Fold this protein.
Amino acid sequence: MLHLRGRVLVDDATELDEVWVVDGRLTLERPRGRRVADATTTLEGWVLPGLVDVHCHVGLGADGAVSAEVAEAQAVADRDAGTLLIRDAGSPADTRWVDARPDLPRILRAGHHLARPKRYLRHYGRELADVADLPAAVAEEVARSDGWVKLVADWIDRDLGAEGDLRPLWPDDVLARAVDVAHARGARVTAHTFSTEALPGLLAAGIDCIEHGTGLTPELIDEVARRGIPVVPTLLQVGQFEAIAAQAGRYPVFAARMRRMHARRHEHVRDLHDAGVPLLLGTDAGGTLEHGRLADEAAELVHAGVPAADVVAAASWRTRRWLGAPGIAEGAPADVVVYPQDPREEIAVLAAPRAVVLRGAVVAGG
Ligand SMILES: [Zn+2]
């Protein structure tokens, strides 16, 4: 029996003094017939529902799919950093085996990223030669996902030569049909987007979430806020735009745009927050970024001007609710993280959890 005490943060409005773990599940009252002395382990501090990374690619490396051993190491790095729930934002590897591993974080999959040949990173996505195949491909990815589909909505078009720049991958009518297909099957759709040009089509189609969102203009931000569509700013990824631009010398228009978006990334995120857009935390780990860096993304958001209390809520209970996953509740799986300090007052403490508890087992620290 595990005893967690101190400040147990349930949601924005609710705080408890203690919770208990019996048979891997949370109980909010001391189990009948048990005494405090019966606890085999007591953990004290600020107790939060396990952290959530909504843009994290388990099974993806710099050159595409990785082995199960590497995917496991990625998942362990996330877990040890307190990330106990992942919405993978597309993975070329089949990670379904993770579900049978009680020691690994829970993953809500989005199937394979849907892209076009030469219009995304090689070996990352499923490439459709004919854009008209997108709705059918969405139906197939819904079948292998856990309720999410990931579209690559824009990428550099190198066929434009020196004028090469970000361009949408899909015609608006195809996008609209594709999103309808997902919604009809009960799935939600998110989209990779760096550009401004891809956004009107996505919004018209009824997109459910926006990844990166660096091209959002003030008018589009107002629209996204009005509709309550969450944006995942992935500041660690956007922090690499300068380096991406530096390697794109043959495409000066593209490079200049990436540099502009890089330079104003923090101001941009503050604009999103000020407009009331729900912001979610995504590390974009897998590919080129390391796993286990959710605390760094949180610190970047705070640096951009988002209040730490909002960042912590988004990293934990708020996003769990949005994804339909339990947080701290009677009978819920005991997936929690314990910190020595209140992360709403000192965001840096997210990088140093005192203990990580997954399905009632202390898997790190403690
Ligand atoms: Zn990504």
